[in-house]
Design goal:
By secondary structure, the chain is mostly helical. The chain folds into two domains: 231 residues, Growth Hormone, Chain: A, CATH 1.20.1250; 236 residues, MFS general substrate transporter like domains (Growth Hormone, Chain: A, Up-down Bundle), CATH 1.20.1250.20. The protein has a two-stranded parallel sheet.
């Protein structure tokens, strides 16, 4: 919005907007003005959303690329991952290290990436963040063809893949400026789900390309290196297109400024940290298991390599990220009907049960049960991602109402402040939640090293999910602070 609008809190009745296909700086942007929105603002916002989803999807695709690469590097002649398909403890630990490093780096980058949009503009930073994906892809394509390359080089390349994880925050921050309040939730949901689907893209496409490469060459180390090179380079044309598309067609909003005060208030609000903890359980589990799932399948069910079509489809690992991505919008929708806290509590309970089923499947050595249990877990993480995100604005809105009532403040001002704080909190919560993916994989790795089994890690997860369910009840469902009661007040005025 313009400076005048920001100062008065009112929209102009006469402002219109001319939509253009080419990207530019927008000095006036008033999406909550109905005339401005309908005269061209809506088309411009949708245009930016399309290119944002495409670039973010690529970010996730590159971020998770190591989940598939590590399962094939042993066949490509790299000794530190040899024997992974036979459950070799050292190879499994090395694989989990290489898949967890991008998760950690991506989580850390989410904080600075959130602040980049106001500083550099959405168009420039989307193009920059997309172009940065060329570094881990081209670097991996080169070193995968050098069999003598030590593991520490691949650790660095895995860390560079973390650039893709940071893209989520900048993309979400950018799109939040383009849409009016009435459409912001839907737009951000589409943006988030579109990005999450990048995980499924990689886990489906890369095994197919690797199989094609080994078919063209031979099923020997050289053939696998050729297949891996093809699988990595397949993303390069799309990265170039995303970079070009962002520069040519996306827009930057000159009045999009970060709110330092709101970030400070969000950081000292206990609910920011409580929700961060809960988001570790939902999104951290989604991204952590998405990275680890291909390795877990190959290590626990090595005989699947004898079934050609399953191997070609990456042992069906892509199904986890796929169902988890599609269930996320459903989590937001059902939370609107039932209440975010209730859904979140039951999600954690269900995740504990699903984890127990995974352990039963391993005891029975049943891949169908193992796959179904993991798919249930992924569906629940997706629903939990939607329900926890839905809780955040309701909690901040309810607190603002209470504070305004106790201190005699204007409700409108308090609600406006709560929305800014909720937006700031979402950035923090998203970053900390992503770090849960690193913690989850490291727990698997350390359990494998110290106990020779991942069972202790899985049982710890089950207990942690039950504890998170209890935390959700304690803070947001018991009578002293019930979101069921709070949400009815929030919906009455938001």
């Amino acid at each position: 919005m313009t400076a005048a609008v920001a100062a008065t809190g009112q929209q102009s009745d006469t402002t219109t907007f001319e939509h253009q296909k080419r990207g530019r700086w927008l000095d006036t942007w008033e999406p909550d003005n109905e005339k401005f929105w309908e005269s061209g603002g809506k088309l411009t916002a949708r245009k930016n959303l399309i290119f944002s989803v495409f670039a973010e999807n690529l970010g996730f695709s590159v971020w998770v690329i190591w989940a598939i690469v590590v399962t094939n590097m042993g066949n490509a002649g790299f000794p530190f991952l040899a024997g992974l398909g036979k459950g070799n403890p050292t190879s499994v630990s090395n694989a989990l290290l290489l898949t967890s490093i991008p998760t950690l780096v991506g989580a850390i980058l989410r904080i600075p990436y959130t602040f980049a949009i106001p500083k550099f503009g959405g168009r420039a930073f989307t193009a920059f963040s997309a172009a940065m994906l060329l570094i881990p892809t081209l670097g991996l394509a080169y070193f995968i063809n050098q069999p003598s390359t030590p593991m520490w080089v691949f650790v660095i390349l895995a860390a560079l893949a973390g650039f893709g994880g940071g893209n989520f925050s900048s993309s979400m921050a950018n799109i939040s400026f383009f849409f009016p309040e009435k459409a912001k939730g839907t737009a951000l949901g589409i943006n988030a789900a579109g990005g999450n689907l990048g995980v499924a893209n990689t886990q489906l496409i890369l095994p197919l390309v690797i199989t094609l490469g080994t078919t063209i060459m031979a099923k020997d180390p050289g053939g696998y290196r050729f297949g891996l090179t093809m699988a990595v380079l397949v993303w390069v044309p799309f990265i170039l297109f995303a970079t070009f598309g962002a520069l040519r067609y996306m827009d930057s909003i000159s009045t999009a400024k970060s709110d330092g005060k709101s970030y400070k208030l969000a950081l000292i609000n206990r609910h920011t940290w409580i929700m961060s903890f809960l988001y570790i359980g939902t999104f951290g589990s989604f991204i952590g298991f998405s990275f680890a799932f291909p390795t877990l399948i190959k290590a626990n069910f090595p005989d699947l390599t004898k079934i050609g079509w399953i191997t070609t489809l990456g042992n069906l690992a892509f199904l986890g990220a796929l169902v988890g991505s599609f269930s996320r919008p459903f989590g937001g929708w059902v939370s609107d009907k039932v209440g975010g806290a209730k859904i979140t509590m039951w999600v954690f309970g269900g995740m504990a049960v699903a984890t127990g089923c995974i352990m039963i499947a391993l005891e029975l050595k049943s891949f169908p049960l193992y796959l179904l249990a993991f798919l249930l877990l992924f569906v629940l993480t997706g629903i939990g991602n939607g329900s926890t995100y839905r809780m955040i604005p309701i909690i901040f809105s309810a607190e603002a109402k209470k504070y305004a009532s106790e201190h005699g403040l204007e409700l409108t001002d308090a609600l406006a402040s709560s929305k800014r704080q909720a937006g700031a909190a979402i950035g923090v919560i998203g970053a900390i939640g992503a770090s849960g993916g690193y913690l989850l994989q490291q727990a698997l790795r350390l359990s494998n090293i110290n106990f020779g089994s991942m069972a202790p890690a899985f049982w710890t997860y089950s207990g942690a999910f039950l504890f998170m369910a209890a935390v959700t009840w304690f803070f947001y469902l018991r009578s002293s602070f019930a979101v069921g009661r709070v949400s009815s007040l929030a919906y009455a005025n938001v």
